[in-house]
């Protein structure tokens, strides 16, 4: 089924995930909504425990058995939540791929790296071992692994962290998927290597015209890497905007706090670093309404009762002019889950 | 790879050498001298002197040790006091019973335990898993010689399918034969295998479960492999590492358990030999058999170490072992 | 909350755990039987009653009688004393000598650790039951010798476990902090390392207790353990084997007693392992 031109690559509607734990059923994701087009780069930012990785795993269908998923996840219009495990297996690695945070443990220590890259090729494209090994070499060259030919038979423990992550990327891109999900791909790497790996991802994504969902807790990363950013807190997306727009103004109390907390060069000595008062509530204690309620300076009663609905924010004037006109309107939207956003806009 | 093998070989050799010294040493350190132990309290001074002469006790310990080891390396062993035959001959004879018994028991153990352990791990926390775990708990609690007796009660006394003990011999001329011999070893092998199977099942199950929660399993699933494919291609080999370790340890257990089991079934094996030798105070036989059994255990562990190098490439390339 | 209250709360929580509860109940029954048998048994165990030999279970003899007319129930009860004694002393030897050895090796590191571990490894290469048989052969059979032999083999087990667990504790930051504050190695070992390895040791102790009971039973079966007239479950099985055709049940009861004791200890050990595990990452 060829998707219609304006069918989004990935469409997530009211995604909810409940986890069965010894404390009972807990809602870990409370209604995630977003869309992604081919070739678009989307960032997902939030602290640990807000549900970013869970969202990624839910899309891939890799949640543990004790998780219940409801809502809609559609890839090219096909509903993933209704698919059988077998069908999902044909999609994973072929049409959608994921790379993870710890390259050290994410590769099987007992298999040489060419074999691990060849695996999706054999699985989804029916390649034989010889062709797959050759293709693995091409892929390793593409991810700029130095001395790839010699390294083919190496084992993961013989490579450095950055090299292992390159191997992971080549594994993910082997079958040229339509979407790549990268869950904190550089968090475990040295700072210098981080830049290289991120640049590599950016380049490859652009070359193949893939969609990229980049998950991180690092704001600086987002500015350079993705066109659009979604901010997550307490199992829901609280703000979503073009990266440039978000960096110009933030309209959710949490996002404001997040940006304000970034240490900056050139501050006067003795300036206190800003923090957000309070603590992230434990997943067991998530309130009915907005999870940020207890830490919010603008909180109202209605905030605590139910998750605030999505409110569209008009774009700033200079923004409207510089936008590309052929992109669907949804992309350009800046929306926020906060009834007080106008107050925040005024205060900013 | 070769440095690892050399290292292991060296270690094997040293352990063997030290073991021989310990075996020799323990028997030197007896209350009274060897002759007194062998002949007992009622020995006359003349018989004691004769025995001391026979054992060469007038020579210093070191030269006797060297003579013993030298003899072993040349294939000559001591002469048994009670049987008056070279211990090597005795041991060869007895190994014809014990070795097949051990192999049968180990084969059953490995086969059953790997299957059950894998099954339990893949069906974790369901009824099947609980069943397997209960079964293994019972297997661990039951003393093997009691199980042996129960098996005899059921199959020999009640059903009368096999005899209650004894070994007819491997050759038809002596009244035995291949099938008769094997039949006599079935119950003992089962009794031996029971506990080991219980242990190995648990180890296999936990090794597989542990492997399944590793990150590379998630990566493999993300590539599109089904749960079955992940199990066979990624989990098993990794899980084998701790399993093989335990298998090696179990072999030592098996050999010692054989001592008891052979007594239950009155099998003319090594276990019974050493037991009788101890009862007869035949120190020469005791010394040589203990040395043989220890050497076998050490050899098996050496092979297990080599097996690691095959399974785990991190050892081959000299990276720090996990 | 007082420590007595915390303790009772912990015990209550422990009994919610199925394995532990089942195991603890069995072990309790065992201990109570042994205690009871110190004061009372249905019949004195020394009472030989040949006319009534090999009787089947009845109102007078709940489990029947053996080949000398002795009451099986009484023999089983007194035999439990034997098993408990072996377990306690053997584990006691292992803990008393093995744990300090392991702690020392871990605290000192270097060649001390190397030597201790090599020696420990070496004793593992030596089949334990075999050595126990050897020792009983040289020094004569009997309870004392067999307990000692079993106990000696507990030493390397506990040394190894202690050293492994202690190493993990030493590598944690709070011991570094204590060292930086100037505490001596011994003080740190006593105040920090030992409490943290205690849980591992407790679990291992229950395991070794069970192993000791099995080992003593095997030795007694072979005639090398507890000598007559003291009752021993293992020896009862040996005597029963010669009566297999006449009185098959004789071979069943002592075995059940041994299996039950070991099962109880194993269950308790499994339960303790779960309860004391600080990670608690499992979903029940």
Task: Write out key terms for the chains shown.
heterotrimer, A: 348 residues, alpha/beta, eight-stranded mixed β-sheet, four-stranded antiparallel β-sheet, 12 strands, globular, C: 284 residues, mainly alpha, MetI-like fold, 10 helices, 73% helix
Biggest interface and its residues per chain?
Answer: B-C, 44 and 37 residues
Find the structural class of chain B using helix and strand composition. Answer: mainly alpha
Approximately what portion of the residues of chain B adopt beta-strand conformation? under 5%
Approximate helicity band of chain A: 25-40%
Oligomer: heterotrimer
As a whole number of angstroms, the C-alpha radius of gyration of chain A is 21 Å
What shape does the CA trace of chain B take? globular
Morphology of chain A: globular
User: What's the total number of strands of chain A?
Assistant: 12
User: Helical residue percent of chain B?
Assistant: over 70%
Radius of gyration of chain B: 24 Å
Taken in chain order, the helices and strands of chain A follow as EEEHEEHEHHHHHEHEHEEHHHEHHEH
- Tell me about the biggest sheet of chain A? 8 strands, mixed
Strand order of the largest sheet of chain A: 6-7-8-3-9-10-12-11
Describe what this molecule looks like in 3D.
The complex is a heterotrimer of chains A (348), B (322) and C (284). With 348 residues, chain A is of the alpha/beta class. Chain A has a domain at 227-263 and 274-348. Chain A has 15 helices and twelve strands. In chain A, strands 6-7-8-3-9-10-12-11 form an eight-stranded mixed beta sheet, sandwiched between helices. A four-stranded antiparallel beta sheet of chain A has the order 2-1-4-5, covered by helices on one side. Chain A starts with 9 loop residues before the first strand and ends with a helix. Chain C has a domain at 79-276: MetI-like (MetI-like fold, Orthogonal Bundle), CATH 1.10.3720.10. Chain C has ten helices and no strands. The interface between B and C is large, with 44 and 37 residues.
SSE inventory with pairings:
The complex is a heterotrimer of chains A (348), B (322) and C (284).
Chain A: E1 10-21, E2 24-36, E3 41-45, H1 52-60, E4 67-75, E5 78-79, H2 85-91, E6 96-99, H3 103-106, H4 113-125, H5 129-142, H6 148-151, H7 161-173, E7 179-183, H8 191-208, E8 211-216, H9 219-225, E9 228-233, E10 236-242, H10 243-248, H11 253-260, H12 301-305, E11 311-313, H13 317-322, H14 329-332, E12 334-336, H15 341-347
Helix pairs in contact in A: 4-5, 4-7, 5-7, 7-8
Chain B: H1 2-28, H2 34-39, H3 45-55, H4 61-73, H5 87-122, H6 127-141, H7 144-158, H8 178-212, H9 215-222, H10 227-265, H11 270-279, H12 283-311, H13 313-316
Helix pairs in contact in B: 1-12, 5-6, 5-8, 5-10, 6-8, 7-8, 7-10, 8-10, 9-10, 10-11, 10-12, 11-12
Chain C: H1 3-16, H2 18-39, H3 72-108, H4 110-125, H5 128-139, H6 143-170, H7 173-180, H8 185-221, H9 233-241, H10 253-276
Helix pairs in contact in C: 2-3, 2-10, 3-4, 3-6, 3-8, 4-6, 5-6, 6-8, 8-9, 8-10, 9-10
